[in-house]
Amino acid sequence: xxxxxxxxxxxxxxxxxxxxxxxxxxxxxxxxxxxxxxxxxxxxxxxxxxxxxxxxxxxxxxxxxxxxxxxxxxxxxxxxxxxxxxxxxxxxxxxxxxxxxxxxxxxxxxxxxxxxxxxxxxxxxxxxxxxxxxxxxxxxxxxxxxxxxxxxxxxxxxxxxxxxxxxxxxxxxxxxxxxxxxxxxxxxxxxxxxxxxxxxxxxxxxxxxxxxxxxxxxxxxxxxxxxxxxxxxxxxxxxxxxxxxxxxxxxxxxxxxxxxxxxxxxxxxxxxxxxxxxxxxxxxxxxxxxxxxxxxxxxxxxxxxxxxxxxxxxxxxxxxxxxxxxxxxxxxxxxxxxxxxxxxxxxxx
Length: 349
Fold this sequence. Notes:
14% of the residues lie in helices and 28% in strands. By secondary structure, the protein is α+β, with helices and mostly antiparallel strands. The chain has two domains: 21-133, Rieske Iron-sulfur Protein (3-layer Sandwich), CATH 2.102.10; 148-340, Naphthalene 1,2-dioxygenase Alpha Subunit, Chain A, domain 1, CATH 3.90.380.10. 38% of the residues are buried.
């Protein structure tokens, strides 16, 4: 787990940063997904993370990430193109290699290029069909969410579309972890308003954050398929939270079925979140995937309506700000975990 000493400033914040400096410092060391691997091909792609504008591009050496800015005259490098493993600026043709170093100035091809003429680059990982980067981390895999099932031959990897949410990342994360809303928000998808009770469940601190194990009779099959579960089947849902903003839900289906969902929201800014949700399963692998994509869209758009309407917009880490019930055990532990990372009591406000 990465933590930043309160009050310690790392400086060099993005222009127009919507986070407080202390919150940005606490979040920036962690890995976040910024794009689908399949979308990074033969053209540079513009993305944003924590208000920092980035360009992502692929060469024979792999995927690179850098500030989306040519150091010559301030044109976004994402407007350029790639040729012979070089990222080429659209304005004056400055060439940059995979490490960000400038290799050619076409107007002065014999120029001695100084070392400082180099794009600011960031560590990159490709995992679960996504491109991940960290703005101030050391590049180790220590804080990358671990989903070993994704690469298992027993599981089918599935990559739904991303979803752009006009809400704070903390609110989205807490909504994903909440089990008391099933009957009220997802009653058309899989739950029932006739079954709103949340049985007692356990929350355990973990090195990566926390784990919640929740057992109930709430089916995880879509309404049209709920006949496939035995009557009164006990559904086990295990949430593994990787602080600050990632969680894996493992749902135990009948007959040994497992569904693993990685909730990986990427904080574009303090109030804008791009949600990636790779999932994998060890059952129904001969079935068409479109119903899976549609069910995933339905669940997350139902949640989107709620989190975009919540007020205050930011997730309050002062537990006195909102009223809590017994069913909120995961939420309370999650908020305490964010506070220990050094995030402010009214996070990002």
